[in-house]
Amino acid sequence: MTSLLSLLRPPRRASGGLASDGSRTARPEAGRWATAGRLLLGFYFFAMVLVNVFITLPSAKTVYAGLADLTWPGFVWIPEQVIEPMAAPFTMALIAWECAVGVLLLSRGRAVRLGLWAVLFQVLALAPFLGWYEIPNLLTAVLVVWLLRREHDRSFPQMLGAHRSGPGVAHE
């Protein structure tokens, strides 16, 4: 039986990006660690969907009131005056956002890059609202920047299909 790490085997080739002068340049292929990081990030977003469905949504106003307590001065009006009055619809939009980001991260190519940019936007945009709890998000931002420097040519379903096909089978 092949190991779980064989799922994370890097793709056979890297597609090229564009350098500032317009010439083609290749980003390094996403190796096992980069692929594992991307997949974990994608599954984390799906886990957050479950948290928001079962914990945040039923008591959304209370959750966002607690968020206001963590928020930096000057930003408190956002959770208090914008998010709390529409707590349930905001949470449903957040759930849809997290589903979309999770799907993008488990995809391949440009979709993964779009998902990574969305993660970077989210972790940086949350900074004023999470106080000291934002520190782990800053580490996530570093991971995302590193992942953006890699090519992600295989989706999670393709990895599963290749794993089921056995070793030595082409992945494209």
Secondary structure layout plus pairing:
Blueprint: E1 16-18, E2 24-26, H1 32-56, H2 60-70, H3 77-83, H4 87-105, H5 110-125, H6 127-130, H7 135-148, H8 156-165
Antiparallel strand pairs: 1-2
Helix pairs in contact: 1-4, 2-3, 4-5, 5-7
Description:
With 172 residues, this protein is mainly alpha-helical. The protein is 62% helix and 3% strand. The protein contains 8 helices and 2 strands, in the order ββαααααααα. The chain has helices spanning 32-56, 60-70, 77-83, 87-105, 110-125, 127-130, 135-148, 156-165; strands at 16-18, 24-26. A two-stranded antiparallel sheet has the order 1-2. The chain is elongated and about 50 Å long. The relative contact order is 0.17.
- Overall outline: elongated
Number of helices: 8
Give the distance, in angstroms, between the N- and C-terminal Cα atoms: 22 Å
**What structural class do the secondary elements suggest?**
mainly alpha
The Rg value, from CA coordinates, equals 19 Å
Mean pLDDT: 83
Read across the widest sheet, the strand sequence of neighbours is: 1-2
Low-confidence stretches: 1-8, 10-15
In N-to-C order, the SSE pattern is EEHHHHHHHH
The oligomeric status of these chains comes to single chain
